[in-house]
Amino acid sequence: MLAIFTKIKDRVEAFLNEKNIVTDCLNTIEEKTGIKKRYLALGAVGVTGAYLLFGYGASLLCNLIGFVYPAYYSIKAIESPDKEDDTQWLTYWVIYSFFSVGEFFADIFLHWFPLYYVCKCLFLLWCMAPVSWNGSQVLYRFVVRPFFLKHEARVDEISGKAMSAAEHVTREVLHTLVRNRAVGPAEPEAKRLPSSASTEPTVD
């Protein structure tokens, strides 16, 4: 357990020493107040936890926590030559997607629970934790992967039929549009303008 907290502490220290918008704000506040940015970060975590318990819009804050930090490190993983971190964050997004779909149906029953958003935030933090047994790795290995391997052939068959049906419908719609445009009603002829030449009566 001590090794886990040490690793998390090291990860937080590394983040606080990076150059980004969060550390820029913390450095500015540290210069003006004299409070070390690690304590400012701890205070921000405490305020965030209290807000998740009692604040309005806790759902938005919780979703931002589960999105902003992973999105930032996912972009860094894409830009880095190492592919191991790509797999790590791709696994997180798979679990996050499954969780979001499940939450859509369960939210109507769970949103009234006082600690719901705190528990959700802790779950998302566990899924992105910098340890080998974080939530995304555990859930993917023991839940998502066995289910996927068991139903992969059936899912591929259904998705193939769905793609074929979509292509057929799209092709038929395009053909119908082209045909209607080709055999549509002819445009009325433009009315002839009266001739500018005057027709004078001839005198016999």
UniProtKB/TrEMBL annotation:
InterPro entries per the UniProt record, alphabetical: TB2_DP1_HVA22
Pfam families according to UniProt: TB2_DP1_HVA22 (PF03134)
Topology in membrane: Multi-pass membrane protein
Compositional bias ranges of the Polar residues kind: 195-204
Alphabetized UniProt keyword annotations: Cytoplasmic vesicle, Endoplasmic reticulum, Membrane, Receptor, Transmembrane, Transmembrane helix
Protein name: Receptor expression-enhancing protein
Source organism per UniProt: Carassius auratus (Goldfish)
Keyword hit for Endoplasmic reticulum: yes
Keyword Cell inner membrane appears in the UniProt entry: no
Family: Belongs to the DP1 family.
Membrane-crossing residue ranges in chain numbering: 39-69, 89-110, 115-133
Lineage of the organism: Eukaryota, Metazoa, Chordata, Craniata, Vertebrata
Cellular localization per UniProt: Cytoplasmic vesicle, Clathrin-coated vesicle membrane; Endoplasmic reticulum membrane; Membrane
Sequence segments annotated as region (Disordered): 185-204
GO cellular component: clathrin-coated vesicle membrane; endoplasmic reticulum membrane
